[in-house]
Amino acid sequence: MEIRRSPHFLTLVAVLLIVFAVHDGYCFYLPGVSPADFNVESDVKWASRWDTYLLMTDDQIHWFSIVNSLMIVLFLSGMVAMIMLRTLYRDISKYNQLETQEEAQEETGWKLVHGDVFRPPTNSDLLCVYVGTGVQFFGMILVTMIFAVLGFLSPSNRGGLMTAMLLLWVFMGMFAGYSSARLYRMFKGTEWKKITLMTSFMFPGIVFVIFFILNALIWGEKSSGAVPFTTMFALVLLWFGISVPLVFVGSYVGYKKPPVEDPVKTNKIPRQIPEQAWYMNPVFSILIGGILPFGAVFIELFFILTSIWLHQFYYIFGFLFIVFFILIITCAEITIVLCYFQLCSEDYLWWWRAYLTSGSSALYLFLYATFYFFTKLNITKVVSGALYFGYMLIASYAFFVLTGTIGFYACFWFTRLIYSSVKID
């Protein structure tokens, strides 16, 4: 016999449950259960109550990511050690010995371009701006990760990580102005105020325009996820009221200091660059240089994208800090290796190529984000897709500035080191 569950039957069951329960205030207690049984003091400390939600069950994958990145770093470190300890030592010894010989011998290799290697590049103003912005971004990321590793940034405080990053970005403006002005002074520039304005407005301005367009799309959909106008006004106030003055202070201090002296003199007439082999083509070497830095972080990048777009918690900042340190070493080493090969082929235009070599890893980041969109996400609306690619464009642009600056400073230190070790008349 089949029993039909009519609405009257469900109502009767609900009434019986209420009758057999004991009502006390706003709570219902089952028969035989004391109210004191619900007031049990927990042994878990308040600071550790998020551990259940933040427990990562895939820590083996993160360790695999770190081991994979360490293998890349060891491979690059071996190449750099071979170049620095063997090849460079042999080159420097040979060049210094040739200076003592009576017969004149023709110079070859990277010493041949010593009179042009520190010649200011084309669009040097723009390079100074991007280097200063990269220093600002590097300081923001480093301090944020240190705070996160020490436990000051908890996911229980929603938005705390983004708020900390924005505030640190504002206060790191002084280092941005100082770095761009110092490099601009080394290039013998005179319009330091123009460089300061470009450093203050170029990167934040591009990001703000993209963010405003994306937020306007959310407003058009009448979504509650749109950033309020008051918050946008507060961001602009932080930008113009604190960040821009700090950039001017840093630029003034950096420009007034004595300029960085080049280890060798620059010739008045630039020498002609010989025809290069196909593998030393700038586009090819730049694209090759970005693969290894991206390979060192792409596994961790998967978990970051998952936490952002699939609403999962990401709290393994210890792993992330190790991967960030590996990224710094990888960007520096791959740029040094390719810069050495470039100088050996008598191509002295290394300034922009050093920046773009490690910065090209941002291109692979955006391509991976595109692959992630079509394989992991189920987004069908045009506005949602525009939001995804817009935010990932901002992230890739910031990654380009960060990695490019790391590679540039590594190459800058490398060239000054090798040319200061050779006797040049």
From TrEMBL:
GO terms, biological process: protein localization to membrane
Transmembrane segments: 61-85, 127-153, 159-181, 201-220, 232-255, 276-309, 315-341, 353-374, 386-414
Keywords, alphabetical: Endosome, Membrane, Signal, Transmembrane, Transmembrane helix
The name this protein goes by in its record: Transmembrane 9 superfamily member
Pfam families per UniProt: EMP70 (PF02990)
GO (cellular component) term, any one: Golgi membrane
Leader sequence residues: 1-27
InterPro entries xrefs: EMP70 (IPR004240), MFS_trans_sf (IPR036259)
Organism placement in taxonomy: Eukaryota, Viridiplantae, Streptophyta, Embryophyta, Tracheophyta
Membrane topology note: Multi-pass membrane protein
Compartments in which it is found: Endosome membrane; Golgi apparatus membrane
SUPFAM superfamilies: MFS general substrate transporter
Main location as per UniProt: membrane
Family: Belongs to the nonaspanin (TM9SF) (TC 9.A.2) family.
